[in-house]
Amino acid sequence: QQQVKQSPQSLIVQKGGISIINCAYENTAFDYFPWYQQFPGKGPALLIAIRPDVSEKKEGRFTISFNKSAKQFSLHIMDSQPGDSATYFCAASTAGRRALTFGSGTRLQVQP
Amino acid sequence: SQTIHQWPATLVQPVGSPLSLECTVEGTSNPNLYWYRQAAGRGLQLLFYSVGIGQISSEVPQNLSASRPQDRQFILSSKKLLLSDSGFYLCAWMVRTSGSYNEQFFGPGTRLTVL
Question: What value, to the nearest 5°, has the Cα angle with vertex B51 and ends B71 and B75?
């Protein structure tokens, strides 16, 4: 029940297109949902995060959409750029658990 | 501002040799600290976390151990490395203040190759 399932495993998008990565969870106690971006050879960097009291959060070209009833959340990257090519991880946690549960990651490639 | 350091950045060790990876955090006090391992092209596996000096929780049984001798220092060790210990080791810290969003920040990582 602690799992977070992420899809797709890999994604190829043309420059200027929209990249969409999806995550699903079972534990209804999760109350914090961050997304991380990782470039090769680097540690993951916090990109954007959402709490379940809102259905959408936007920061620049990055948007999290959250569907509490479906227990799903997704990352949308608008106007995708080659510099967005990286691996993206979704995660979830509860206030009582001291660690994040990560999805398996999505390797995004944005073609010029 | 907070900074997290890991060293060494890369390490090549023979099978059966010992291991010591170090992580330090600056600019914060009493953080939660974490060790993750990432195999090539794979996700993040939580190995250990610590909520305070001398307090270690293990998530996955293996030949690795962790210690927290100081508030902002976290060490990952092994007495005898296995080939399967190869990977990218990441240290992370988390704000512990109440009402926070559990934001977790990662260090630059250590690439370990066991031959």
Answer: 55
In this prediction, residue B101 carries a pLDDT of 61
Kindly provide the residue ranges of all beta strands, DSSP E only, lying in A56-111, ordered along the sequence.
Answer: 56-59, 62-67, 72-77, 86-92, 101-102, 106-111
Interface mutation target, options B30, B44, B59, chain A, most CBs of A under 10 Å: B44
Residue ranges of B 42-101 with Cβ closer than 8 A to chain A: 42-44, 46, 49, 51, 57, 59, 90, 92, 94, 101
* φ, ψ for residue B39, nearest 5 deg: -75, 160
Task: Say if strands A62-67 and A56-59 run parallel, antiparallel, or are unpaired.
Answer: antiparallel
* pLDDT, tens only, A56-83: 999 999 999 999 999 999 999 999 999 9
Q: Do B114 and B83 contact (CB within 8 A), yes or no? A: yes
SS3 of residue A83 by DSSP: helix
> Which of A51, A98, A105 has its CB closest to that of B43?
A105
User: pLDDT-based confidence at B1, cuts 50/70/90?
Assistant: confident
